Amino acid sequence: MSKNQLYFIMEIEKYIWVIPFLIDEEENIRRDMEENMKNKFELTEEEKQIENEMGQYKSVSEEKKRKIEKIIDQTKKNKAISLRINNYDLEKIKEKAKREGVPYQTLITNILHKYISDQLYDKDQVFKTIKLLKKERAI
User: Which of 1, 49, 86, 130 is the residue whose CA sits 20 to 30 A from 73?
Assistant: First the structure.
């Protein structure tokens, strides 16, 4: 990490976002992406929110900075595990992963992450909720 490298840290919808940036000699924030790169990519709503709120953030102490860097380093580490799964489920996961264009291990990891972060929803429950909302004319 460069000595001019700093981080913005913010929470959006149960996620912690870490945004690295550089400070030049005049203490002006220099973004890693040049202005012309913005035109090449459409920003997500979260990214737009981060850009709009950038002026509200303050630097943290060196101690907090070290703690944050330690947390970031720990989150980058993956743990290899052994998992028993029946053949039918594994084949279905492999088929779905192939359709989505990702390795099946990545798909399993994504499913687990969505489950533990309460982003995995039961399709039947979603349909029941939509039906109920339509019945109540809420949507």
Answer: 49
C-alpha 56/C-alpha 54 separation (Å) is: 5
- The set of residues, in sequence order, having a beta carbon less than 8 Å from that of 88 and lying 6+ positions away, is none
Give the span between the Cα atoms of 94 and 45, in whole angstroms.
Answer: 31
Quote the CA–CA distance of 23 and 31 in Å, as a whole number.
Answer: 9
Q: Give φ, ψ of 13 to 5 degrees.
A: 50, 60
Digit-coded pLDDT (tens) for 26-64: 445 444 444 444 555 677 788 778 777 777 777 778 888
Report whether pLDDT(86) > 70: yes
Nearest C-alpha neighbor of 20 from the set 52, 48, 54 = 54
Residue 36, both tokens: 């012309």
pLDDT confidence band for 90 (50 / 70 / 90):
very high
Q: pLDDT value at position 33? A: 44
For 66, list phi and psi in degrees, rounded to 5.
Answer: -65, -40
Query: What pLDDT sits at residue 2?
Result: 54
Question: Amino acid letter at 105?
Answer: Q
Contact 69, 40 (CB under 8 A): no
